[in-house]
Design brief:
426 residues; mainly alpha; two-stranded antiparallel sheet; globular; transmembrane helix
Length: 426
């Protein structure tokens, strides 16, 4: 970074100030130490087996086995080397490349799986398929959060958009017997919640976080009331939505390991692929994205070049609500198959954490959502493998990963400058 510094002759000159970034290496060191302590005080012996293909796979791959104890400590050695690398970068005033935390995370997860599966079997394809399935609503919510905060509005109401989208999808898909109508209804439901958020935070200048929290409570109460008063007495007519079925893509679905995970999915998952690509491309490569980022970073400057700041915020928050509503539709049109009270279970807040962890970038936020989905599915696998970890900690695992991710990595970056700040035209 640069700063002003006095020269010997009394003039003021620009000087370069070097800054050490210690948060990443310290986080890696803590994670390595925790794994080492786990392997030391709760050792597990035997053979850890990973199944790379299912019986239905076109190309069958053999199972891969590792000696548990030896493999765990070898992987800890690699984690130590990566941690030292990060400390060396910090001591040299260099920023560590993104590849290092990614490789570290993969090796750490692999080491933990080797330890957990001692004497057992890890179905790799099933683990990844479940992780992607649990990540779908988080990804849609995170994309909605990215658009909202990039335009200057903190979208705390993702949870409410999920819940109202799920309710609308279940109701309309049950009435029309058409999941696509339910999907459109979910988008409309998400837009309605976003409309209220935008109206109060942009037009009436109410604190955005407070409006978002109130909306979450309001939608939770409203959908709970409508569920008891409308859906429960008429369950067969109003709460039996037609669900999306899987569409297998020829050839691509035959790719070992990732083929069944990525290319034997429902319409909403394929729509997710397209949405991530469009938002990532549009945010950085189009006029719409340039204006959106300008409004979120410096609304006064955007206003001077003719951009209608509040109008832009209003419509982009509505777009964010539509995208989050699709995430809500996934619950009732794919995952569960009917609406239940508070079925989103706080996932909207995890999606908001993915936005922060992903540095307000659609691709990074998507990867963060995938991480949280993987942690949730890992909880289920560890229960099946009967690891010596208390079941209460298993339930905490996704939220612990969320806290570690946000506290450990997101503290290094700054969000959009105008996020959460109302714009009053002078």
């Amino acid at each position: 970074m640069t700063a002003l510094a006095p020269a010997p002759d009394g003039t003021i000159q620009l000087a370069t100030v070097k800054v050490r970034h210690l948060k990443l290496p310290v986080t890696l060191a803590i994670a390595t130490a925790l794994l080492a302590l786990l392997f030391l005080f709760v050792p597990r012996n035997g053979i850890s087996t990973f199944r790379l293909s299912d019986p239905s796979s076109t190309i069958a791959l053999p199972n891969v086995s590792f000696p548990t104890a030896v493999t765990c400590w070898v992987l800890v050695g690699f984690l130590v080397l990566l941690t030292l690398w990060a400390f060396w970068d910090s001591a040299s005033y260099r920023r560590t490349g993104l590849w290092l935390p990614i490789v570290f995370s993969l090796l750490a997860v692999f080491a933990f799986l080797v330890w957990a599966s001692a004497g057992g079997l890890v179905p790799v394809t099933g683990l990844l398929f479940g992780a992607l399935s649990l990540s779908v609503p988080l990804i849609f919510g995170a994309l909605g959060g990215v658009i909202g905060e990039r335009v200057g509005v903190v979208n705390v109401a993702i949870e409410g958009q999920f819940l109202f989208g799920a309710f609308s999808a279940a109701l309309l898909a049950s009435i029309t017997h058409n999941p696509f109508v339910g999907l459109v209804g979910a988008m409309v439901g998400g837009v309605l919640v976003a409309f209220v958020l935008a109206a109060f935070s942009i037009k009436y200048l109410v604190d955005q976080v407070i409006v978002g929290v109130v909306l979450n409570v309001l939608v939770t109460g409203l959908t709970g009331f409508l569920y008891g008063a409308l859906l429960v007495p008429n369950e067969s007519e109003l709460n039996r939505p037609v669900r999306f079925t899987r569409w297998e893509i020829p050839l691509l679905s035959d790719i070992p390991i990732i083929g069944p995970v990525l290319f034997n999915q429902t319409f909403i998952v394929y729509l997710m692929y397209i949405t991530v690509a469009l938002v990532a491309w549009g945010l950085y490569r189009t006029r719409w994205g340039l204006r959106l980022r300008a409004v979120g970073e410096h609304p006064q400057a955007a206003d001077t070049v003719g951009i209608k700041v509040n109008t832009s915020r209003f419509w982009n928050v509505s777009l964010a609500g539509a995208i989050a509503g699709i995430g809500g539709a996934y619950f009732t049109l794919v995952s569960v198959g009917q609406f239940t009270k508070e079925m989103t279970a706080g996932l909207g807040f995890i999606a908001l954490a993915a936005v922060i962890f992903g540095r307000w970038d659609p691709i990074r936020a998507t990867l963060a959502a995938l991480l949280f989905g993987f942690a949730t599915n890992l909880q289920n696998l560890l229960t099946v493998l009967r690891t010596p970890i208390p079941s209460e900690f298993m339930l905490m695992l996704p939220y612990v990963v969320t806290i570690i991710a946000v506290a450990g990595f997101a503290g290094q970056i700054r969000g959009p400058a105008a996020a959460g700040k109302p714009y009053i035209k002078g």
